[in-house]
Design brief:
The complex is a heterodimer of chains A (402) and B (63). Chain A is mostly helical and 402 residues long. Chain A contains 18 helices and no strands. Residues 356-364 and 373-402 of chain A have low confidence and may be disordered. Chain B has 63 residues and is mainly α. Helix content of chain B is 57%, strand content 0%. Chain B has 3 helices and no strands. The longest helix of chain B is centred in the C-terminal third of the chain and has 17 residues, at 46-62. Chain B is rod-shaped and about 50 Å long. Chain B starts with a helix and ends with a helix. Classes of the chains: A mainly alpha (402), B mainly alpha (63). Chains A and B meet through helix 1, helix 3, helix 5, helix 7 and helix 9 of A and helix 2 and helix 3 of B.
Chain lengths: 402, 63
């Protein structure tokens, strides 16, 4: 009965993760672990999925813990394929955490076992992971200095050249297997590796392949990534017009995909490209567009941080972010953002029983801003981002806005 | 001559080199990682699994 119950919980966890609800999936998997099972293979599968769910939720310390449990278990029961998979997942997690040397050992283990088992699919996946680790390692060291692509210290160059070699090896296997999706991923990352190495023509060729495959699959996110990377490469080839064209396509897709952060980045890239083209009017136009979105994202971040700190009862930090929000809103002349920030601060003051000392004019000013907006005190502050967005992000929707 | 000098100036102007600053604003877009997956159903024989799922679903119906 207990067995069935653990399995039942785990199956529900799997279903939820497949449906894209990792947070709920984690709850079921953790419940399944609580109930426990004597079947170590089942437990290994639960650990593995918990590790992946936490990885996708970007909680890498927990991902590491569970993939490590999975690895130990797989070794205990002598499950070679299971060990290979756990090693690969552990390697990917260590890479994200910046522990490149251990990541390489784990990914190499994934590769070695896959080859022993004559598992071509596993081998290709391990090669891709290894490429990713070496790419990250190279990029990480390169970022420590400020280098243009192509002018790199030897250790960076070595890591990147290894990455390119692993991507090429991966490509030859997945091409043989006819796995187009895997080819697309390898071309994209190979292109970025060539870019860092300063091989801009090779980068363009790889990203063009990536673009082709993205279109085959109707994968618009991948298509957008390819445009953006092509734009970057053409900048360094000195072909600014072509770069601008690709960045414009990036922007178009970012808007279609409703990804504000990527939209901001595309505007910024376009601003820089038009600067290089000496078309300063357009450059200014795009930099302003970037500024507007950056401001909006900053507000959201302050808002979310303020909420999180309030929930934790960390009012000092909550006030710090509310004040920053206010400061920036004032600087850029965002009156409705300013109002929201003031109201948040006054809420926090109430929570703190007015022990927080503020300049006395603040409340009076709040009233003035509020009156000028002709809007009532927005309901549901600190509970609903939407209300704030109506108040703040779309001033044209506020009645009598000057 | 005068026009030539003007031409040279224009040529110099057009040779704008991307600066490091612009490079570092260029976000490289990486492809997603691939994680290896396991499933609790991987290790069960279909027969064994079938009876378990049956017991699960029948339990659920009885609730």
């Amino acid at each position: 009965r207990m067995e069935a119950s653990c399995l039942e919980l785990a199956l529900e966890g799997e279903r939820l993760c497949k449906a894209g609800d990792c947070r709920a999936g984690v709850s079921f998997f953790e419940a399944a672990v609580q109930v426990g099972t004597e079947d170590l293979r089942t437990l290994s599968a639960i650990y593995s999925q918990l590790g992946n769910a936490y990885f996708y939720l970007q909680e890498y310390a927990k991902a590491l813990e569970y993939h490590h449990h999975d690895l130990t278990l797989a070794r205990t029961i002598g499950d070679q394929l299971g060990e290979a998979k756990a090693s690969g997942n552990l390697g990917n997690t260590l890479k994200v955490l910046g522990n490149f040397e251990e990541a390489i050992v784990c990914c190499q283990r994934h590769l070695d076992i896959s080859r022993e088992l004559n598992d071509k699919v596993g081998e290709a996946r391990a090669l891709y992971n290894l490429g990713n680790v070496y790419h990250s390692k190279g990029k990480n060291v390169a970022n420590a200095g400020t280098h243009d692509p192509g002018e790199l210290p030897d250790d960076v160059k070595n890591a990147l050249q290894k990455a390119a070699k692993y991507y090429e090896e991966n490509l030859s296997i997945v091409t043989e297997l006819g796995d187009r999706a895997a080819q697309g991923r390898a071309f994209g990352n190979l292109g970025n590796t060539h870019y860092l190495l300063g091989n801009f023509r090779s980068a363009v060729l790889a990203h063009e392949q990536r673009l082709l495959i993205a279109k085959e699959f109707g994968d618009r996110s991948a298509e957008r990534r390819a445009y953006s990377n092509l734009g970057n490469a053409y900048i360094f080839l000195g072909e600014f017009e072509t770069a601008a064209e690709y960045y414009r396509r990036t922007l178009q897709l970012a808007r279609q995909l409703k990804d504000r952060a990527v939209e901001a980045q595309a505007c910024y890239s376009l601003g820089n490209t038009y600067t290089l083209l000496q078309d300063y009017e357009r450059a200014i136009d795009y930099h302003l567009k970037h500024l507007v979105i950056a401001q909006e994202l900053h507000d959201k971040a302050c808002w979310s941080l303020g909420n999180a700190y309030t929930a934790l009862g960390n009012h000092d930090q909550a006030i710090h972010f509310a004040e920053r929000h206010l400061e920036i809103s004032r600087e850029v002349g965002d009156r409705s953002g300013e109002l929201t920030a003031r109201l948040n601060l006054s809420d926090l003051q109430m929570v703190l029983g007015l022990s927080y000392s503020t300049n006395n004019s603040m409340m009076a000013e709040s009233q003035a801003v509020e009156n000028s907006l002709n809007g009532g005190r927005p309901r549901g502050r600190r509970y609903s981002m939407e209300n704030m967005e109506l108040m703040k992000l779309t001033p044209e929707k506020v009645p009598n806005w000057n | 001559s005068q026009p030539l000098a003007g031409g040279q100036a224009a040529e110099l102007q057009s040779k704008v080199v991307p600066s490091k600053q612009i490079l570092h604003s260029n976000n490289m877009e990486m492809e997603p990682e691939t994680m290896e997956t396991k499933s609790v159903t991987d290790y069960f024989s279909k027969l064994h699994m079938g009876s378990l799922v049956y017991s699960c679903t029948s339990k659920r119906k009885n609730k």
